[in-house]
Amino acid sequence: MAQYVGAIDQGTTSSRFIVFNKAGSIVSVGQKEHEQIYPRPGYVEHDALEIWRNTQAVIQEALAQKGLKPQDLAAIGITNQRETTLIWDRRTGKPLHNALVWQDTRVDPIVEDFAKDGGYDRLRDKTGLPLASYFSGLKLRWLLDNVPGAREKAASGDVLFGNIDTWLVWNLTGGVNGGCHITDVTNASRTQLMNLRTLDWDEEILSLFNIPRACLPQIRSSSEVYGEATDNLAGVPIAGILGDQQAALVGQACFKQGEAKNTYGTGCFMLMNTGETPYPSKCGLLTTVGYRFGQGKAVYALEGSIAIAGALVQWLRDNLGMIEKSSDIETLARSVEDNGGVTIVPAFSGLYAPHWNSHARGLIGGLTRYATKAHIARAALEATAFQTREVLDAMTKDTGIIATELRTDGGMVVNELLMQFQADILDVPVVRPKVIETTALGAAYAAGLATGFWSGTDELVQNWAVDKRWTPAMDASRRERLNALWNKAVSRSLDWAD
Ligand SMILES: Nc1ncnc2c1ncn2[C@@H]1O[C@H](COP(=O)(O)OP(=O)(O)O)[C@@H](O)[C@H]1O
Ligand SMILES: O=P(O)(O)OC[C@H](O)CO
């Protein structure tokens, strides 16, 4: 009998394939970064064919590491950067344009146009989302309007739309030879085209945005057997799909109402399980689908999305050449006692939750002749912690639930300076689990639940274990002083661009 479950984790910066055992521990990992393409200010693109090639390569790498064969895998799950938007030709399998990455702001003018009639929240009740360049619907409209011939072919079903999950499943299940054109409810809930209550594409929104239904994938649950993989996973059931932030919610075993996690990757995303009805936000959070297992009811979540977290560390590395590797930031930041008065607001794609200000732009404030690159490194890490505090404050206001601890995961949580500062600035303990690859784990759980590899969520809760806990150690007056400075810097960054 197969002893493992595999998960493809296709993130903003890299693709991974991780093999897990029944205890939810990692058996082997393949990982490969892909190119970030920035053709103009505000534009962020990925080459979807490179992503597919990397996905095949990392599957091979992880299997080879332990001499595994496809038959050793009971199922595979897929989790992905959400919202990133792609169209391709059903007959050739070729993308018609680079994928528009979730951070891409080129549709801002279209957002403004739609907001003129009814405001930014006109689709909130149906979709849980404000009008913003972040989501897929208007990105898809841009592609259909700007790629010659795309709209006509989309209307006849010859051009297909997908987020990265859909693209990977289509390729994995045969591509031009009859690949499945599907997505799951969590990814669909990020398009701004799905109605949160019917869990189907919303005809009114499709007609408002002028999107032909024929190019959209079928919406399925997050945990069921969708088909069998071909290629280097031939015969393995594909049985789980979750957007990466929802996958982390599942990987952190947040199955009870009120349980929450915060994932620190390229961006930073806090999700709280809010149960079986959509929970509206008055404080700038998103209402989204958390997961839906098989024919069970959908479970919803409140989400605080932060566009730039680890991406700021990458920017210091790649654009300023301040560090060689992302992990060097901790040593540099630790070489000084504090931020030396420097504050960074990384509003590179505007500011998401709770501000939703697309005209905000990044700034570095508080500079004096005293400031060094070490102070900037420290301020860069602190920016993630301050943004998380804004989101947690919004969660508390919206739900009345006061957090007793924050479960963390993602690539940045190896940074212990950040973890301590996070606990200090929240005045809430921060907990890191043994497995921080919770995104991949969540997708593996979804696939393993569908195929009976795991018996149910109780078994998954048993798998969760603490690695380390940080308790708040900052005095209240210092915390409030630092927060006031952060709020001042944010107010200066808002409405910067025309
Ligand atoms: N030691 C570190 N300290 C701070 N940030 C880090 C560290 N190691 C990695 N990162 C950041 O974490 C991010 C990668 O995390 P990951 O969860 O793999 O992201 P994603 O899924 O968005 O591709 C990168 O933006 C990188 O700069
Ligand atoms: O790939 P990540 O981890 O940066 O996550 C991206 C999010 O899904 C965007 O909504």
From TrEMBL:
Residues involved in ADP binding: T12, R16, T266, G310, G411, N415
NCBIfam families listed in its UniProt record: glycerol_kin, PRK00047.1
Role played: Key enzyme in the regulation of glycerol uptake and metabolism. Catalyzes the phosphorylation of glycerol to yield sn-glycerol 3-phosphate.
PROSITE patterns found in the cross-reference section: FGGY_KINASES_1, FGGY_KINASES_2
Protein name: Glycerol kinase
Pathway given in the UniProt record: Polyol metabolism; glycerol degradation via glycerol kinase pathway; sn-glycerol 3-phosphate from glycerol: step 1/1
Gene (UniProt): glpK
Binding annotation for glycerol: R82, E83, Y134, D244, Q245
Binding residue positions for sn-glycerol 3-phosphate: T12, R82, E83, Y134, D244
Domain of life of the organism encoding this protein: Bacteria
HAMAP family according to UniProt: Glycerol_kin
Domain Carbohydrate kinase FGGY C-terminal: 261-450
Protein family per UniProt: Belongs to the FGGY kinase family.
GO MF, one example: glycerol kinase activity
Species this protein is from: Microvirga arabica
